[in-house]
Amino acid sequence: MSTTAVLHSEWIKIRSLRAGFGSLIALFGATLAITLLVSATVGQAEADNPEAEPLFGAFYGLNFGQIAAITFGATAISSEYLGGALRVSLSAVPHRGLFYAAKMAVVGSAALVVGLLSSFASFLGGQAFMGTYAIGLGDPGAVRACVGGGIYLALMALFAAGLTVLLRSGVAVLSLLIPFVLIVSFVVGDIAKGAAEYLPDRAGQQVLHQDPVGALGPWTGLAVTAAWAAAALLAGWWALHRRDA
């Protein structure tokens, strides 16, 4: 099969997979809905707080959107390990490197497109409720945060996808990453503040701050998350080549 045909087949798989496609919808829906809810209820009161950071607060929904991104990355891959589907896929595409690259390219591209849409929509939608406290895309760091937020969500999806190939279980990956992002990262941050800056979620979210504090800047923080994702993808590539289907 040609590279184009493999890419097309992988897109068909994701589009027809209810859990995977539903996770993409949830990524957009959860990010936008929670941002709108928070902005409509406590947005102006929080913005009146002298310690508030309007730009970072505009992306509150991404804390929940990243869960959907992780879920999408895991479910898009875990379907290959059900009912011998991987053997069928590798029979159609014997070149494992091509199969793996195409699958990750489709996962990453889909997550990036939906992530960018979610990031821009939540930012613009949330500002509609902020009244005189609203900020726009012309404010310092706003476009960078919107673009970086979309890239961050795509990287988290790829991070989960690579780990799913390594562990051969979407359930295992979700059981590890979701508590890590929601709980463990904050606990580690309170204990070891310097080291916590290099965790994938904390590093990547530096791009959402107007003036990031710490050793990592907005793009270097995103690069750290990209390094985590690359390590997971390399581990998944190694596992796919070393193990039997």
Any chance you could write out the topology, listing elements then pairs?
Layout: H1 3-16, H2 18-47, H3 54-57, H4 62-78, H5 85-92, H6 96-127, H7 142-167, H8 170-191, H9 193-196, H10 200-204, H11 218-242
Helix pairs in contact: 1-6, 2-4, 2-6, 4-6, 4-7, 4-8, 6-7, 6-11, 7-8, 7-11
Structural commentary:
The chain is mainly alpha-helical. The chain is built from 11 helices and no strands. The chain has helices spanning 3-16, 18-47, 54-57, 62-78, 85-92, 96-127, 142-167, 170-191, 193-196, 200-204, 218-242. Helix 1 packs across helix 6 (96-127), helix 4 packs antiparallel against helix 8 (170-191) and helix 6 runs antiparallel to helix 7. The two termini are 19 Å apart.
Features:
single chain, 245 residues, mainly alpha
Summarize the structure.
The protein has helices at about 5-15, 20-45, 55, 60-80, 85-90, 95-125, 140-165, 170-190, 195, 200-205, 220-240. The protein is an all-alpha fold and about 240 residues long.
Number of helices: 11
How many strand elements? 0
Residue stretches low in confidence (pLDDT < 50, at least 5 long) are: none
> Rough shape?
globular
Characterize the largest beta sheet: strand count, sense, and whether it forms a barrel: none
Radius of gyration, CA atoms, in whole angstroms: 19 Å
In round numbers, the mean pLDDT is 86
Structural class: mainly alpha
